């Protein structure tokens, strides 16, 4: 497997376009991803019980496991917009189906932006001509840009790998910088691949990849109403179809996980106001649930996150977060590392040179490792620090 | 019952003092509360599994239900300090026992400050003479001041009420401004009363009062290793002893709850960097657990808290927090109020004049009410906003 240039238009038979339809001020806010043939499709959606209209429509249109296009807008979440919102989401799908002469049920829909405002769907339907007439195999970055809200950089990635005599590509774009927490974040991600793969295998591979990547990041503990990861697999690579197990499945899932991990890391690195990239690892926990609890307690603690922002090696806050996490714990067995420096040994402060600690917390990337010595389970979470800039960005998002 | 001047020295037979022993720079950092006779005593402690040494010692010394003195320091939490820390906490108790000629097991100990630093216990024991020689019935405010860390104001309150022909007083001090979350916060509170009451009734009344007050506030979702609420009841009011039920118990618990509620509100109003006092109420939830989940999801959401800071009536974030809380929910039945303005009606935006909304979010005190229309349970949580100042305060606490 190797990382290559490009994004969602790297796999064969995918075209994309992006345009400005007027939902945002002077920035692209609408995009289309199109497969030349109907593709196997799968999705993973937000666990939030307040669900946006496009999520409802996409789930329904995914039921038969096939899709050919994705239309997405930024600038308005089309959430808590009642029956009109649902009609608007269907109109978005229908306008693409009409223009491209495909089935409405083969169009997936996504929206991101402010909650609770009526969608000016006319602006979107009026821009469909411009979208479809500009479809190209070179516009992945434009699509990534059109999804940005508080994001500061477009996020895309592509990989290729060989399977038998076929070369398979997977490409992805994502958006997200705040309201980021597992299951899922305020994030959209669209992934394309030219692999031939069964619907069942595609679903399984997507879930596995998302669980290990997008679902292991947190920026502020908030989960959005609109999140989804959608994947289309159009079979244009002409490989022998990948099933739910075996070498082909493994190679595909490895490549897909790489794509998801890359995009997830890009989201955390673009965290609203973030100045640090913090990797939290909890080891030797009594159970997987305990390991996760402890890792998330650290990664979501405002006190830990502000300490990281302040370049302050205040590991007492890490210990306090683990202590309240609910994970089984003997303080006398607890070890904590900041980077490679052991700061707590068996529940007591370890001797560390101050200069070494200062070097570690001054870096952009900081590793926090907590060893519970209670069992064999581990968990890892990626997060950012909590800065004044985060407050600034989020204090005035709608106004 | 009426609110009166004073704090912990208002009840008969209590004396207190505070001094500077050198743990903090040029600010009082050590205090003593003393009852002229052994008092019935009870405590509620942190649920954090990383527990500070003074918590271990106080729990042990409370086992027989009697205490006569509380010694407390700020500037060092004496937490994750191993066997030496435990010895140091015992030394604090022993030094007071020696000086006042009382039993070591009748001295309670509390500490607050940085975690994981050896306590310079010699500074404390050297200051005991100064503490005991300055005991007075007028120094409640000094005690409140000596507990302050990031607090900006000392916190105390007193009430009196009549029971039969006796007048009973209850007084309290508290400290806390960050690391505040139920069970318990980074807070210490010491309460005194001259009521005659059984040990069992005192324990029960304290737990009831704390559950409804200190355990219903959150500032940043972090729970500390050192928190405790301690109460001493010395019987000096000479009332007929209060038992675990009946009129006397009710009157006492009402007054104690008032004291706890007043101190809890003062803590939230002094929240680190706080510019808002936000009261979150969830009504008509399916269960008590659901009501609590929803209320805490809102009250701990960085997005909701930054919106309040930014005076932004962005109720979509409130809906999103409720949606991810895990509480049972039908969006179509969801109503949300900001102050008295209904902003969401049956899951849809309600028509509200912008001017009215602006007035509401411009005030210091903001009420958020969410009505789930799924059952009969309610929960209330008090919280603050999340401001740039919070980040500033917490980014550089140890350095």
Question: What does this protein structure show overall?
Answer:
The structure is a homodimer of 399-residue chains. Chain A is an alpha+beta fold and 399 residues long. Chain A has two domains: 2-269, L-amino peptidase D-ALA esterase/amidase; 277-395, ArgJ beta chain, C-terminal domain (Ubiquitin-like (UB roll), Roll), CATH 3.10.20.340. Helices cover 34% and strands 27% of the residues of chain A. Chain A is built from twelve helices and 16 strands. The first copy, chain A, has helices at 53-62, 82-100, 121-126, 128-133, 140-146, 199-212, 246-269, 288-300, 302-309, 315-324, 354-362, 388-395; strands spanning 2-4, 14-19, 30-45, 66-74, 107-112, 155-163, 166-175, 188-193, 217-218, 228-233, 277-285, 335-338, 341-345, 348-349, 365-371, 377-384. In chain A, the strands form two sheets. In chain A, strands 1, 2, 3, 4, 5, 6, 7, 8 and 10 form a nine-stranded mixed sheet that branches. The first copy, chain A, has a seven-stranded mixed sheet with strand order 9-16-11-15-12-13-14. In chain A, a hairpin with a 2-residue loop joins strand 6 and strand 7 (166-175). Chain A is globular and about 70 Å long. Chain A starts with a strand and ends with a helix. Chains A and B meet through helix 9, helix 10, strand 14 and helix 12 of A and helix 9, helix 10, strand 14 and helix 12 of B.
């Amino acid at each position: 497997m190797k990382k290559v240039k490009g994004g969602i238009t790297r796999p064969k038979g995918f075209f994309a376009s992006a345009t400005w339809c007027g939902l945002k001020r002077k920035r692209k806010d609408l995009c289309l991803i199109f497969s030349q043939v109907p593709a196997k499709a799968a999705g993973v959606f937000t666990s939030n019980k307040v669900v946006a209209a496009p999520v409802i429509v996409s789930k329904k249109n995914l039921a038969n496991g096939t899709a050919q296009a994705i239309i997405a807008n930024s600038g308005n979440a089309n959430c808590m917009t009642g029956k009109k919102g649902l009609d608007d989401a269907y109109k978005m799908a229908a306008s693409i189906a009409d223009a491209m002469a495909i089935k409405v049920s083969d169009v997936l829909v996504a929206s991101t932006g402010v909650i609770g405002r009526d969608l000016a769907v006319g602006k979107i339907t009026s821009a469909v001509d411009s979208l479809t007439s500009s479809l190209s195999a070179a516009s992945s970055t434009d699509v990534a840009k059109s999804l940005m809200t508080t994001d500061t950089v477009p996020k895309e990635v592509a990989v290729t790998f060989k399977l038998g005599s076929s070369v398979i590509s997977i490409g992805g774009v994502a958006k997200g910088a705040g309201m980021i927490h597992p299951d899922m974040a305020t994030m959209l991600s669209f992934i394309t691949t030219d692999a031939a793969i069964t619907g069942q295998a595609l679903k399984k591979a997507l879930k596995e990849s998302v669980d290990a990547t997008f679902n292991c990041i947190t920026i502020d503990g908030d989960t959005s109403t609109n999140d989804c990861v959608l994947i289309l697999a159009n079979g244009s690579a002409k490989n022998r179809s990948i099933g739910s197990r075996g070498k082909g499945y493994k190679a595909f899932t490895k490549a897909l996980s790489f794509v998801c991990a890359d995009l997830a890391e890009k989201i955390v690195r673009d965290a609203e106001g973030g100045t640090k990239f913090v990797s939290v690892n909890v080891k030797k926990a009594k159970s997987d649930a305990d390991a996760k609890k402890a890792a998330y307690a650290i990664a979501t603690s405002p006190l830990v996150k502000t300490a990281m922002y302040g370049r302050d090696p205040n590991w007492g806050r890490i210990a306090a977060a683990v202590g309240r996490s609910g994970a089984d714990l003997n303080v006398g067995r607890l070890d904590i590392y900041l980077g490679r420096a052991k700061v707590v040994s068996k529940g007591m402060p370890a001797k560390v040179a101050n200069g070494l600690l200062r070097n570690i917390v001054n870096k952009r990337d900081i590793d926090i490792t907590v060893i519970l010595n209670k069992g064999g389970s581990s968990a890892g979470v990626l997060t950012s620090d909590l800065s004044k800039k985060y407050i600034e960005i989020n204090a005035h998002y709608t106004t």
